[in-house]
């Protein structure tokens, strides 16, 4: 999966350049999160603007990244969440767990 990391001063953006997140990209994604956290950032924004569909495995991947990030006292934010992905997150009530912003 294409993952692009854009480091800013106090935060980093991890962009998923894929239409579907199925979960099989979990190791690569989690390694990107860990690498970013190891840089000492205070906030990670996950840019889902390219993602049109996410499976339960993909949701698990986000939950794992959320837990890892918050355990390191950093903020975890989803951005660019499309309507279909938001609806899926809302069905499992993760829209009340994740911080979701329209754009960064």
Structure description:
By secondary structure, this protein is of the alpha/beta class. The chain has a single domain, classed as Transcription Regulator spoIIAA. The protein has 3 helices and 7 strands, in the order βββαββαβαβ. The protein has helices at residues 26-38, 56-71, 83-91; strands at residues 3-7, 11-16, 20-21, 43-47, 53-54, 75-79, 99-101. The strands form 2 sheets. It has a 5-stranded mixed β-sheet with strand order 1-2-4-6-7. Strands 3-5 form a two-stranded parallel ribbon.
Summarize the structure.
The protein is of the alpha/beta class and 104 residues long. It has three helices and seven strands. The model has no long low-confidence stretch (mean pLDDT 93).
The count of domains is 1
| Biggest β-sheet: strands ordered side by side in the sheet | 1-2-4-6-7
SS-derived structural category: alpha/beta
Evaluate the radius of gyration. Answer: 12 Å
- DSSP, total strands: 7
- First CA to last CA: what distance? 22 Å
How many strands, what sense, and barrel or not for the largest sheet? 5 strands, mixed
Strand content: 25-35%
Order of helices and strands: EEEHEEHEHE
CATH class identity: Alpha Beta
Going by CATH, the homologous superfamily would be: STAS domain
Q: How many helices does DSSP assign?
A: 3
Helical amount among residues, as a percent range? 25-40%
Give the second-level CATH assignment, the architecture: 2-Layer Sandwich
Task: Provide the residue-averaged pLDDT.
Answer: 93
At the third CATH level, what is the topology name?
Transcription Regulator spoIIAA
User: What general form does the structure show?
Assistant: globular
Unreliable spans are: none
């Amino acid at each position: 999966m294409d993952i692009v990391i854009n480091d800013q001063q106090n935060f980093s953006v991890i962009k998923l350049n894929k239409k579907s997140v199925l979960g099989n990209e979990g190791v690569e994604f989690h390694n990107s999160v860990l690498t970013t956290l190891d840089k000492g950032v205070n906030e990670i924004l996950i840019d889902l603007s390219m993602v049109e569909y996410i499976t339960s495995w993909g949701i698990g991947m986000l939950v794992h990244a959320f837990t890892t990030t918050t355990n390191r006292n950093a903020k975890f934010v989803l951005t660019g969440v499309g309507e279909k992905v938001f609806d899926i997150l809302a069905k499992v009530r993760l829209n009340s767990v994740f911080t979701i912003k329209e754009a960064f």
